[in-house]
Design goal:
The complex is a heterodimer. Chain A is an alpha/beta fold. Chain A contains 8 helices and 5 strands. Chain B has 2 domains: 36-240, 3-Layer(aba) Sandwich (Rossmann fold); 306-473, no CATH class. Chain B is built from 16 helices and 10 strands. Chain B has helices at residues 48-61, 78-86, 92-116, 127-136, 141-147, 164-172, 192-213, 225-240, 306-324, 328-334, 344-347, 359-370, 379-395, 409-413, 423-431, 436-440; strands at 36-42, 66-70, 120-124, 156-161, 217-220, 355-358, 401-404, 444-445, 466-467, 470-473. Chain B is globular, with a radius of gyration of 26 Å.
Amino acid sequence: MRRYGDHRFAGKLFVVEGIDGSGKSTQISLLNQWLRAEGYGVVFSEWNSSPLVHDITKRGKKKQILTPSTFCLIHATDFADRMERNIMPLLKAGAVVLCDRYIYTAFARDVARGMDPTWVRELYSFAPKPTVAFYFRVPLEVAIGRITRGRNGFKHYEAGLDLGLSGDSNESFKLFQGRILDEYEKMIPEFDITVIDATLPIEVQQDQMRQMVTARLTQARRLRVAP
Amino acid sequence: MTDREPGGSSMGADDAMRETYGSTLPGMSLEELPGKIIVIEGTDGVGRSTQIAMLKPWLEQQGHAVVDTGMTRSELVGRGIKQAKEGHTLGRITLTLFYATDFADRLEREIIPALRAGFVVLTDRYIYSLMARALVRELDAAWVRNLYSFALKPDAVFYLRIGVEDLVPRVVFSTGFDYWESGMDLHPSEDMYESFRKYQSQLLAHFDKLAEEYNFEVIDATKDVRSIFEELKRKISRVVRGEAEPLFSIPRPKPEAKPPKRVPAVRSPRRRVAWGSAGSARGARPRRGQLTHPFRCLQVPGGFQSLAQIALADLSLGFAQAQDQLSYLEAQRKVGFEETALPDHVEHGPAQDFEVVPVAEFALQIAEAANRFRAPGDVEFGGHLHQVAQTLGGDAQGVEHARIAPGFRRPALEVPPKLTEPIRETACRAYLPGASRMRRRGWRPVRDSLLGGRGDHLPGRSRGLLCRPLQLLA
């Protein structure tokens, strides 16, 4: 079993990270379209989307039987399934893989839920190190402003209500996301994460991303396929 | 993990505190978990569930509340794993994490609450099977260990061990080869049988390593269901009574010699036998035909020699009886055992009254008894019994079976179950004279003249200790 950083793949792995409402999903879908148009073999993988595991997670959340540890492990299972069946073979084959959320999401959320940071890092040590990990930094208020528009209330686990930080869903969400933000900030130097100011206009952010990505792909032109 | 304490778990000097294998989960308090976790481990098809099905009602009859649990029985992912396995597309890390999720769910929502309520948790496999499966699939050992480091250390792990040779027929005649149990995800090119053998032998090798590392109690699973059950019962009752891991090693039973069907009347020709070099035989009074007992030397360090010597003396007595066809009374006289008023059945009883047990098994029982003396000050006492056990088990040259007077084993070697005072006192009460109850049961004082002259070297409390008649059949 290879560990984080040991992997040497022909393919490239770009991941986006950030709290809800930071605009990362918008950015990665723009990047996805652009790379496809450029003629790269692109694969996109979302957090918590393994067909094997997804239903279990959904049921667990609905029944509210997930504890911090099972929440952590079921997400790790989901991630492992996507890794083993999808991402790794494609990386080996030389594809460009884009991930909306990666292991850093797990580190931030699970540690915010009280899991041991070292334990969680070791748990995900089978994941390959991304070529570039983008972190979309945004103040909590801005993010909350973006996502509360047009929806009422948060889901149980999304708001961290399982932690009993506050009885009020909005209040709990704020506290929980605040913790997650802290964890992200700690990880920036630890994992050499690229920070993007997510308060800038979308176009500016996208431009920054494309520049970084292009720099990494120049050495890998052979990955291009006919559009 | 809750308060991010480094190490978290194993720092308590407090015995009541449970331990994990290194990390704790958020909100997991290790205090006040008075229940017991008893693990039955073993490879596929070894008979774990059969044993658990018998153990559960037995424990309940003993008055323990029991929860039984096992792999893939969690509410969260139990069904999910089964469905995922149908598809045969699970990656090895995914499979491992699936199992870990299942385990964590059961640990937090089933095992820990049960322990808190004082239940006996009887679990069909624990993390060790999961670890072995992951290791067979060549996952990183450190990673696997870390993954399961939040597991509570169980009170006992019984590992039903069986070789692949014995396993194959069992599986063939019960369920047939299963895709995953044959490791078909690992050896896809071969047929199920070859794959099964290969996979299970690798699994077994990993199990054996884990057995050593995590101190499993190994149980020979080739024996019949009944005797495995008996062995488990004996060991589990020790665990639920709260007697911890053996302080002294318990000898592994040797391959059993078949006991004679009927107890043969002792008709060995008279032989000249001589006293062995046991202890300081200075004051011993060998008379007429000298007595050899089969245990040539019993080196017991220190002044605390009583019990070992008593056992030895007792054995000598039995041996004398056996060799020379003496009655018990005569044998006593012969070895200087002065005693009056023997119960009739001991003195004149027919041979059938005696139970024949393999010496090795008897030694095992003594060794287990030895482990009941654990408190400071009692340990030496236990050490003694252990010596006796070793002597019996190890050096019993040519002696395979012991004849034991009826009822010998239980009263003699088991500390009474209703243990209210410290074990030491119980032990004294059991062994010291004056306990007429014991006398009525056939306990007899052994004079120190028997082995050690005037007995000056014996500690006060062991003078006039009681012992029970025991015969050895050469």
